[in-house]
Every structure is written in structure tokens, then in C-alpha cells.
Design brief:
mainly alpha
Length: about 140
């Protein structure tokens, strides 16, 4: 087999590999799009369910723990909005982010089936304590 034949064969294999990689990337992209659409549909369903439960149009007994977790998170968001507004003062340029209308953010773990956390319990996640220590230390230095 001549050198030219070997190079042609190698180029053909590489071209085939590139074609397969492009096809795989396209299919993976389509899959990610479908996952985003699925999450958005679940988010919309959850928001509608919470709305129906709050309006009395749906029995919320089986979902009471999840609804309580959603309401608790919404109240915490509103409290943070008020805290941000107080920190910016009158005429401040910073505006608080709009409150989420959905029951959970994309990729967020589902609420605990045991019910809402106890008052004063940290629900923000494992890094929350470290962040509180960091900001407390930063405030002590000023």
C-alpha cells in the first residue's frame, strides 16, 4: 500500500469520525432542549397547582408539605427583597429581582416529604453556614 493510499484511508476515517461527532453533538443538543422544555412544563404545572390550591380549586392535602415549602421560600424571597430595598435606600439604583412565580427553580431538588423546616432552621444548603461566617467576619472588620 502506498503512502498516498494510507493518507487517503486515514483522511476517510477522520472524516467519518468528524461526521459521527457532529451527529452526536446535534442529538445531545436536541436532548438538552427537550430537557429544558420538560423542566419548564413541570415548573408551569407546579405553579398552576399552587395557584389552584391557594384558590381552593384543588385539594392540597396530599401536597401540603410541598405547598408550605413553596410559600416559605416565597416569603424568604420577599424578605430579601425588602432587605435589599432597605440597603439601597431611597433613590437607590439597585432594584430587587422579581419574585419567582414557579414552585422551584430549574434543577432544584424537590422539597422534603417530611414537611417544612422548623422555624430558624437553615434551608439554603450546605454552603450557607460558610457564607454566613464569611460575611459576619467581613462585617466585624469594618
Amino acid at each position: 500500500m502506498s503512502l498516498l493510499d494510507q493518507l487517503t484511508q486515514q483522511a476517510g476515517r477522520i472524516a467519518g469520525d468528524v461526521q459521527e461527532s457532529i451527529k452526536r453533538a446535534r442529538v445531545q443538543g436536541e436532548r438538552r432542549l427537550l430537557e429544558r422544555q420538560h423542566r419548564a412544563a413541570l415548573e408551569e404545572l407546579g405553579a398552576k397547582a399552587v395557584s389552584l390550591i391557594n384558590d381552593g380549586g384543588l385539594d392540597g392535602t396530599p401536597l401540603s408539605a410541598q405547598v408550605a415549602a413553596v410559600e416559605s421560600a416565597r416569603m424568604e424571597i420577599e424578605a430579601k427583597d425588602a432587605e435589599i430595598a432597605a440597603l439601597t435606600g431611597p433613590g437607590g439604583s439597585a432594584t430587587p429581582a422579581p419574585a419567582a412565580e414557579s414552585p422551584a427553580g430549574a434543577g432544584a431538588p424537590p422539597p422534603s416529604p417530611t414537611g417544612p423546616p422548623a422555624p430558624g432552621a437553615s434551608t439554603a444548603g450546605p454552603g450557607w453556614d460558610a457564607a454566613e461566617r464569611f460575611f459576619a467576619r467581613d462585617n466585624d472588620n469594618h
